[in-house]
Each structure stands twice: as structure tokens, then as C-alpha cells.
Amino acid sequence: MTHTEDSGASIHAKIAELARAVHGVSEAEFGPDRVIRHVTESAVQILPDVDHAGFTMVVRDAAGTPTLESTAETDLIARQFDVLQHEYGDGPCFEAIWNERIVGIDDVETEPRWPELMRAVRERTPIRSNLSIQLYVSGRELGALNLFSGTPHAFDEEARDLAETLATHAAIALNTAHRGEQFRSALASRDLIGQAKGMIMERFRVDAVRAFEIIRRLSQESNTPVAEVAARIVAAEEFDDRERSS
């Protein structure tokens, strides 16, 4: 085995180790934010010539409208690149999320796309090449892993293959973390609704069906989710209890 092959095998082993670590932790330990942070920090430690890393996240509001947010940058240089992308409204990270899946900049000095952004990157950062990889699971865009180097042409075919392997593991781990977070949120909402129902049943001497109907009607009239109405009922009752005991 040549030195290059040995080095590549070592990196693959490190990526496999990272994957086991991320997939093996409990949901309580690793929410989505910690998964992303772990991946960007590991990218700088594991992948050759990667000096900085960050993540561009797809965030959807209640209506499903997506916006892009930058997070988990390993340092101020990666953050500056993301700030510039948001300032100019376009760039490789955005392109990777919505269109191309993998977008690379070989050299910011000669890159013809995004000329104003490239000029700002040259003037304000030491970044000279970039690779952005879409994290995509089950038909849902999650975001893009963004890798930066101070060396032009840092991301050859082998480097791209390694980065894509890391991004694949990251997408699976992030999707799992999101599902765990949604499950915990659903359990918490169910508990709150049950607690609010119990309070209404006790105060107004109604059964469980009638108590839930009251919560549902309040939700409809105020255009507020049922879980949020339940949380307000519980909070108001707890406040009344404190007032009575003081």
C-alpha cells in the first residue's frame, strides 16, 4: 500500500469512527445542534486541507416556507464567508442546497461565478477554495456542509469523495436527531394537554371528553395550537396556585 493509499484508508477509518460515535450516542446527548457542531469540528480535524467549516441549515416556518441560516462555524473565518453569502444573497453553499448538491470553488482568484462575492471573499478572508455538499435525507433538504481551505485547488476527486462520505453520515445522524427532537416534543405536548385537561376537569367538574373540547375550542377561537393553549392553561393554574399560597 502506498503512502497516499495508507493516508486515505486512515481518513476513511476516522470517518467510520466518527459515524459510530455520532450514531451511537443517546438522543438526550445529541440534539441537532450538537450533531452539526460535532460534524463541522470533525471535518477540520479529519479531512486533508480543510482549514474551516460551517453549516447552512434549511429552517421552515409554520407555513413550510424555507429560510437559510448559518450555524456551527468552526471559527470567525468560516462565519465571515457565510455572512458574505447572506449579504450578496447567493453563493456555493446556497447553490448546493437548492440546485447542484455538490458545489466547489477551485480558486477564488479565478472563479467566474458570483463575481461580487468572490471579490469580497478575496478581500476579507484567507479562503481560497471551497466545497459545499448538500445534506439530503428522504426527499427533505436539510442544509449543506461547507468546507473551506486557504489553499487553491484543495479539493481534488479523492478529497471530494471523503467529504461526501462524511456528509452522508452527517445527514443520517442529523435526520435521526431531528426525529428524536420531534418525538420528545410530541411527548411533552401530550403531557401538557393531559395536565390541562385534568385541571379543567377538576375546576369545572366535566369529563375528559368535555375538557378536551374546551381546549380545542379555545385553540380554534384564538388560532393557537392546542399544545400552546394547554401550556397557557397549565401556566395560569400554576400562577394562581402560587398566588393563593403566598
TrEMBL record:
Transcription in keyword set: yes
The organism of origin for this protein: Gordonia polyisoprenivorans
Domain ANTAR: 173-234
Source organism phylogeny: Bacteria, Bacillati, Actinomycetota, Actinomycetes, Mycobacteriales
Superkingdom of the source species: Bacteria
Pfam name, any one: ANTAR
GO terms of molecular function: kinase activity; RNA binding
Keywords, ordered alphabetically: Kinase, Transcription, Transcription regulation, Transferase
Protein name: GAF and ANTAR domain-containing protein
